[in-house]
Design brief:
This protein is of the alpha+beta class. It folds into 2 domains: 109 residues, Alpha-Beta Plaits (2-Layer Sandwich), CATH 3.30.70; 49 residues, Roll (SH3 type barrels). Helix content is 23%, strand content 41%. It has 4 helices and 14 strands. The strands form 4 sheets. Strands 13-12-11-10-14 form a 5-stranded antiparallel beta sheet, with no helix packed on it. A hairpin with a 2-residue loop joins strand 3 and strand 4. The longest helix is centred in the first third of the chain and has 14 residues. The chain is elongated and about 75 Å long. InterPro entries: KOW, NGN, NGN-like_dom, NGN_dom_sf, NusG-like, Rib_uL2_dom2, Transcrpt_antiterm_NusG, Translation_prot_SH3-like_sf. One of its GO terms (cellular component) is cytosol. It holds the Pfam family KOW. Keywords: Transcription, Transcription antitermination, Transcription regulation, Transcription termination.
């Protein structure tokens, strides 16, 4: 077999596997595994380690913050060529509890699943996370209806808007507001 064909075959053996970790230890496991790969010279068998995250806008106390949120808490993706040695290195990394698969045999992810996860991670616009729920009492803190209280009627995550039913002049009227224009009423 030519050298080029040999390299192609090697590249074809690369698959993505999912490892289960202690929740909250995903980044530590990634760092530990990358260190073990370097110290045990496994770069030719274990290629990439990813903690799938996405940017999210969190609104807390009227402040907008961008945070990286783990898409799959407790899981880390590893691109590797599965051999006894590579399995041993990954499986015995501190914080790794197991591979995801049937019995002792790790099951590789489908290429489409991996592409979907990577696309989700590279998403252009961060998602907005709000703590409002339909039917919840809120107070308007900005705009022409400042200090009015109302009930959340609908939440539009795509546009970052919330529709609040506000009562004035004895009638309920829907008012569309930005997430930052309302705050939860403490009950």
């Amino acid at each position: 077999m030519s050298e080029e064909k040999e390299k192609e075959k090697e590249a074809d053996d690369r698959r993505w596997y999912v490892i289960h970790t202690y929740s909250g230890y995903e980044n530590k496991v990634k760092k530990n595994l990358e260190h073990r790969i370097a110290s045990m010279e496994m770069q030719d068998q274990i290629f990439r380690v990813i903690v799938p995250t996405e940017e999210e806008i969190e609104i807390k106390n009227g402040q907008r913050r961008t945070v990286n949120k783990k898409i799959y808490p407790g899981y880390v993706l590893v691109q590797m060529r599965l051999t006894d040695d590579s399995w041993y290195v990954v499986r015995n990394t501190p914080g790794v509890t197991s591979f995801v698969g049937h019995g002792n045999k790790p099951t590789p992810l489908d290429d489409e699943e991996v592409k979907a996860i990577l696309r989700q991670m590279e998403g252009e616009t961060p998602k907005v996370r709000v703590s409002y729920q339909k039917g919840q009492a809120v107070k308007i803190i900005d705009g022409p209806f400042t200090d009015f209280e109302g009930i959340v009627d609908a939440i539009d995550h795509e546009r970052g808007r919330v529709r609040v039913l506000v009562s004035f002049f004895g009638r309920e009227a829907p008012v569309e507001l930005d997430f930052l224009q309302v705050t939860r009423l403490v009950e």
